[in-house]
Design goal:
Strand content: 15-25%
Strand order of the largest sheet: 3-10-4
Distance between the termini: 17 Å
Order of helices and strands: HHHEHEHEHEEHHHHHEHEHEHEE
Number of helices: 14
Domain ABC-type glycine betaine transport system substrate-binding: 42-184, 202-305
GO cellular component, one term: ATP-binding cassette (ABC) transporter complex
Keywords: Cell membrane, Membrane, Signal, Transport
CATH topology of the largest domain: Dipeptide-binding Protein, domain 3
Helix content: 25-40%
Number of domains: 2
Largest sheet: 3 strands, antiparallel
Number of strands: 10
GO molecular function: amine transmembrane transporter activity; carnitine transmembrane transporter activity
Pfam families: OpuAC (PF04069)
Shape: elongated
CATH architecture of the largest domain: Roll
Oligomer: single chain
Radius of gyration: 21 Å
Structural class: alpha/beta
CATH superfamily of the largest domain: Dipeptide-binding Protein, Domain 3
């Protein structure tokens, strides 16, 4: 594997530094590719033997370095950068229907904005899909029964979350994006609160990490608790460790942001018995290499062709 370079050096293969400005205004990007651009040569030559990555040290980047070794992609360069720079590069390539390979994960708003696909991973380098769980403090069921009952029912799909994430990316505040989604999905929301009595004046605190996915889900939960069950909701943004500790020791009442069984495994094991796991609120999370659907490849193994 070639030595990684910061993404801003690699972006010369696109439209220079103008692509970085696109990251600040994603709404200006097209939702579908323009007329086809003829591509020639091997897949590696078409993408300049680059895989566009995110932050150095991220678990996804570590897995991709392993994938490069496992699949014999030694002539490929994993380009370090950030999620914003990665999506900017994707937007520029997609607009011109040019080949690109990126590190991707679900849920992510880019799957709602663009037609993308994961490359098959026959060696299983990226592991099995994870779930996002709802975790509450001990005693919540007795003290805030309506909130507990709703949190126990709360479950949605990656496509739901991605719609909220995309609205935020396109410029809406998290509060407005969540409120709009709730207003547009009343049938689903009403099933979450069916048979649950409002508790006006009761207060509940939600802990979350500053990931796009968890900002979306926590704001939706806050909106439902306030609108349907008349709670006063406090949101506390913290790092993953303090989030788990906060719910376990009662400083926070609940979180809908626990990635299991892998990402947050250490916290779950260390604090075992000190919290209640209400199960998954979202299934189908995924990590891997992603390409636009207009690229005629299906597997990581095809990158060698």
């Amino acid at each position: 594997m070639k030595k990684t370079k910061p993404l801003f050096l690699a972006l010369s293969m696109f439209a220079g530094f103008g692509v970085l400005a696109a990251a600040c205004s994603p709404a200006a990007q097209p939702s579908s590719p323009s007329a086809p651009t003829e591509a020639s040569g091997s897949v590696g030559e078409q993408v300049d033997h680059k895989i566009i990555g995110i932050d150095p040290g991220a678990g996804l980047m570590n897995a991709t370095e392993k994938a490069i070794k496992e699949y014999g992609l030694d002539d490929y360069e994993l380009v370090e950068g950030s999620s914003a720079a990665m999506t900017a590069a994707l937007a520029e390539s997609y607009k011109n229907k040019k080949p690109i390979v990126i590190t991707g994960w679900t849920p992510h708003w880019m799957f709602s904005k663009y037609d993308l696909k994961y490359l098959k991973d026959p060696k299983g380098v990226y592991g099995k899909d994870e779930e996002i769980h709802t975790i509450v403090r001990k005693g919540l069921k007795e003290q805030l029964p309506s909130a507990y009952a709703f949190l126990d029912k709360f479950e949605w799909q990656p496509a739901d979350m991605e719609k909220v994430m995309l609205a935020i990316t396109d410029g809406k505040s998290p509060e407005d994006a969540a409120a709009d989604w709730v207003a547009q999905n009343q049938d689903k929301v009403n099933k979450w609160v069916e048979g649950i009595a409002p508790e006006p004046g009761k207060k509940i605190s939600l802990a979350y990490v500053a990931w796009d996915s968890e900002i979306a889900s926590t704001n939706v939960v806050k909106t439902v608790l306030e609108q349907k069950l008349k709670y006063t909701v406090e949101m506390n943004q913290v790092e993953a460790g303090p989030m788990w500790v906060g719910v376990s020791n009662g400083d926070a009442d609940a979180m809908v942001a626990a990635w299991l069984p892998t990402t947050h495994a250490d916290y779950a094991e260390k604090l075992k018995g000190q919290f209640e796991d209400l199960g998954p609120n979202l299934k189908g999370t995924k990590l891997g290499l992603v390409v636009p659907t207009y690229m005629n490849i299906d597997s990581i193994e095809d990158l060698k062709k």
